[in-house]
Amino acid sequence: MDDPTKQSLERTLFAMISRTAIGLRSILALILTAAFFIPIVLGFWQTLLPSFGYIPAIGLTRIEVFAGQDLIAEPGFASSLRLTLVTGFASTALACILAFSFCAMIQNRIAKSATERFLAPFLATPHAAMAIGLAFLFAPSGFFSRLMSPWATGWQKPPDIITINDDWGVSLIIALIAKEVPFLLLVILSALNHISVHKFMATGHALGYGRAQIWIKIIIPQIYPLIRLSLYIVLAFSLSVVDMAIIIGPSNPPTLSVLSLQWFSDSDPLSLRLATATAIVQTLIILVAVTLWFAMERVVIVVGRWWIRKGGRGPVSDYLMRFLVTMVHVLLACSVLALISLVLWSVAWRWQFPDITPLSWSVQYWSYVLNSDQDILFNSIAIAACTSLICLSFAIAWLEWQNFETPSIRIIVFCIIILPLFIPQIAFLFGLHILFLRWGLSGSLIAVGWAHSLFVFPYIILTLSDSWRSLDNRYIRSAASLGANRMKILLRVKLPMLLRPLLISAAIGFSVSMGLYLPSLVMGEGRIPTITTEAVALASGADRRLQSVYALLQALFPMIIFFAALLIPRIIYVEHADLRGDRQ
Amino acid sequence: MFRLGLVLTAGFLTLTSSVLASEKWNETLAKAKGQTIYWNAWGGDQRTNAFIDWVGEQVEQRYGVRLNHVKLSDTAEAVTRVIAEKTAGKSSDGSVDLIWINGPNFLSMKEKGLLAGPFAQDLPNARYVDFSPSSPASVDFTIPVEGYESPWRLAKFVFNYNSARLASPPRTMQEFLIWSKNNPGRFTHPVVSNFLGATFLKQALMELVSDPKILQSAATDNNFDQVTTPLWTWYDELRPTLWRQGKTFPASEQAQQQLLSDDEIDISMSFDPAGAAAAINDGALPGTIRTYALANGTLGNFSFVAIPFNAKNKEGAMIIANFLLEPETQTHAQNINVLGSFSVLDQSKLNDSQLALLAALPTSPALPTNAELGKTLLEPHPSWMIRLSKAWKERYSQ
Fold first, then answer.
1. Residue A581's pLDDT is what?
2. What is the ipTM metric for this complex?
3. Do B393 and A140 touch (CB under 8 A)?
4. CA distance B89 to A571
5. Could you say which DSSP state residue A423 is in?
């Protein structure tokens, strides 16, 4: 008997199953929105209110005009604005040029995996640690000065010259470049996988172009669109960086981000208006800056086309590029020396100018920190490990599911994911803190972890999605034709094959979390001290020896994770060169 | 007969009040047991951090109160936090139990009703403190304390100089100008948005102003410019002779101490008379550094602890405030191998054995004697410091 009930039951079941699939996807999109988008929007809103004079805690409950006028009237505001723009644009542009030059010169000469191994320590060292090291390197009484005195310089005491914390922000620009060049190198290297550089090089050489010219005229125009987003992120970051600007930036006046933080921590609650208004201005600056950069790209495209068509063989550019590569070498050498001087300071007892090495040694500070500040180490590692693992699972889920979504949804979700990287942290963290307070979450590990995920997740997505997309589809099709379902393909084919990029992006997530200053400070309410909050608090004063211990700890754990990420695939996949990253 | 009755009644009242007080304190002790106190205190000084750790061990052993040091890079962070909590409508169970506070931050919190109290005089150990009306325990930067904060350490403005580089350091503001002109680039002060930097300007103002009494009442739009004119004349001459031509300044006392240690400058300043001696012991400064005060006296004040209105564990916070005033605690703090911070207690209220402990403390050539520290000048009204910082910023931060 043809049972109509049975038929309808089957139909219902089928509908239910397909609905569950849609349901699961929607749930994922919902979770991502709820976890990442809503907090930022609400937090931003809470920051917006005080900038319009709405501060109920002190009885100001009327919305007034934006505090922009008052900001402009503040002494030094114009200089702060100028400094922010100059340091942001200059460091991003220079880092971009240097990274491209370096890639152009090493491409084909050093294996990609070797480059990654060599970049790992620079990537793993958080911004604050690098700034502390570089500050000592360049100070008039610093490492370089000590190396050269008094035999070469004749200095019996440190010279009264301005090096670090200079008014123009040059030292801040250098420090930013030192951190951004390795990041951009990594990005460019992975973008290179998408084009066949060899062929272009061969053709270019045959036509009589030098290496530099081929890169500028043929290769960069092709990979630039692939790294554009990362450049915008670097630009937004440089325009709103806090910890580096505190340590090595100008102080009188400082950059806008530091100014804003100073007002946030002013004892007069009315300063909240100025603080939040500055944060809003910073958001606008980033928006305008990215637009401006985009406009500059258009100009370069027009001028560049004309220039390329002119067909000049430009023999000079090779020398220029070689000079720029030397600059990168100098920069990387400085970063290494900065880390070495941190190691020396961390075990010094007294180290006076102009001695090249410490006068007396002690491991007192290491033993002090390792014995009495274990909770700080635990907090940092636990937060970094949990957020990077959770974010990695979400990233896998999203990358796996996103193919089912319409392109517009994919773009919207992607924009939501990277949004936190384009809004100054201070512009939504303060407001978010008030929300967390209302929800009774503030000051907990969960609150800090959540705030960290806002930044860890986008970096994991950014570093992972490329490898995810470029996985050879034929493996997946073969597995499917052998009868494996999606889950099995994911677990048995995709994840094992992508082990190396998975581990690397987890390591990047780990080091991002390890280096986050404001999210830990604001969300942790000081109750969740981390290595970075301690390091920056100490950098504002305190002993250089203790500062060095914290700066090194800050760099040490991400480095261990990075090397583990590079090493594990080599151990597991002894027999698969492709998967352990030796060939690509 | 009537008078006798009055005396008896008064005596009886004192007796009952002291009995009541000790009962109340026992109640506090009982409630505090098992509480965890979040003490928000500036964390930029390792010795202070270690001292606070020690306090934590002691109060846990003695009273079962656990102490958590929330290390701030600026005290105002804690003030902001309490304001944020008030904004969010959190009027109990707040995250801050105790704050190391004084001056402008205290004024700000007291004015806005963000403090719990009065409690200071109810602490049993308040009996060792001089609470007479104009004493530093009763007036914090000319602001009446009224029991809303309890003292715990003494801050006195002093200078440290490198005796290997100069034989006799400048002792008046005019001498500073002359010395710095002759030794350009060897002197500086912390940036004026920093407490110590602002203090240096205040100290100079007190010396250069024609009538220092005027600084004891609030600065007004009318008198500020006129009163500070001599200060700016002096400073305009001094600034170009400072370290880095006075274009940039160290961010804090510690950053300045690092400059002294790196031999970038010859004279630094501090709010802790034993700080340099302690730093020498720690290897943070060369052994040739000496501490001194100025000829006409220097500013001084007490550091306090206060309890926010919404603190979760007020009882435990009071136990800690009280423990900080124990004569043994203050003696421990004064030990230069520990903190080296001079006692806030009134020496005339201590007994012989307590005094003997103080006398037996180790000493150091860098440590000034009480006589060498000279006169303590009363802090001006906070409005002067606020206006000075603002005026300085307008003049020199462009």
1. 64
2. 0.82
3. no
4. 55
5. S
